[in-house]
Amino acid sequence: MSDEYVWFEGIPFPFVGFSPEHLRDIKENFVLKDEDVLILTFPKSGTNWLIEIICLIYSKGGTKWIQSVPIWERSPWLETSKGYKFLKDKEGPRLMTSHLPIHLFPKSVFKSKAKLIYLLRNPRDVLVSGYFFWTISNLVKKPESLEQYLDWFIRGNVAFGSWFDHTRGWLSMREKENFLMLSYEELKRLEPDELNSLLEHSSFQVMKENKMSNYTLMPSHILDHKSGSFMRKGISGDWKTYFTVAQAEVFDKVFEENMADLPQELFPWK
Ligand code: PPS
């Protein structure tokens, strides 16, 4: 089987698009920026679905980007030689995807505040999806039967190695505040009707009218409801209505003194 994969540190990779030299360079030298967003998955977990969702969020629901740029250019795969070359020189915040197990991931991940999104999927479905995908691809050794693929999968002799090691490895990051775990199954449960309802009911106007959420139930000795409302305006930039020019300058200075060393892309209101 070894001639059907590119091997790096005991992990099999597809033999097209990957090289041990690049994989080593990525692990040792690729530096994550705090403003990067990374989609991390074992192959066939719904990676491309999540990329599409994130691209649509970036585009505020607009479809121009997803309909004009191939998905692998919108969120390149870090570990492919092509993706690596593109990403390492790209300026500004980067969106990228990776199937790498954590022990082969750039070491900078452990110090970085980059947003890490790990997408899980039931490994049985990952297995079936992988079986059909690798059968039609020319990237790895083709399985001859599901039974054979199941045997490879259980032993970790499939592209990117053991699902169990991959998942255990990445889940060790789950307590970190820049790590978000999602699952294919949860995404699947979000029906369009539910999403519409979520958007409607979390809107400012609807929350303002929901007495279970608008704090009008809070006793008046704690909140003086006659003088104002907890659900005040719910807009961005209202400070401009109230700050004088002098106050704005003082605040700018204090902000600069305290926050200048952080990547300014972290502050989306600028
Ligand atoms: S890859 O090759 O590792 O990047 O593949 P990946 O994108 O992780 O997984 C492919 C499976 O995801 C399914 N898929 C979707 N499911 C639901 N909704 C949407 N929009 C969607 N897009 C892709 C795709 O069909 C593969 O799963 P299976 O079970 O094979 O259908």
Characterization of the model:
The protein is α/β, with parallel strands linked by helices. It has a single domain (6-266), classed as Rossmann fold (3-Layer(aba) Sandwich). It is built from 13 helices and 6 strands. The strands form 2 sheets. The chain has a 4-stranded parallel beta sheet, with helices on both faces. A hairpin with a 2-residue loop joins strand 1 (6-8) and strand 2. The radius of gyration is 23 Å and the shape is globular. The chain starts with 5 loop residues before the first strand and ends in an 11-residue tail after the last helix. The mean pLDDT is 92. Bound molecules: 3'-phosphate-adenosine-5'-phosphate sulfate (PPS). Residues 41, 43-49, 125, 129, 132-133 line the site of 3'-phosphate-adenosine-5'-phosphate sulfate. 3'-phosphate-adenosine-5'-phosphate sulfate (PPS) is lined by residues 41, 43-49, 125, 129, 132-133.
**Strand order within the widest sheet?**
4-3-5-6
Q: Which ligands accompany this protein?
A: 3'-phosphate-adenosine-5'-phosphate sulfate
In total, the number of strands is 6
Between the first and last Cα atoms, what is the distance in angstroms? 53 Å
Q: Which class of secondary structure composition applies to the elements? A: alpha/beta
Number of helices: 13
- Mean pLDDT, as a whole number? 92
Under CATH, the topology can be stated as Rossmann fold
Radius of gyration, rounded? 23 Å
Q: What percent strand? A: 5-15%
Helix content range = 40-55%
- Output the helix-strand order: EEHEHHHHEEHHHEHHHHH
InterPro entries: P-loop_NTPase, Sulfotransferase_dom
EC number: 2.8.2.-
Pfam families: Sulfotransfer_1
Main location: cytoplasm
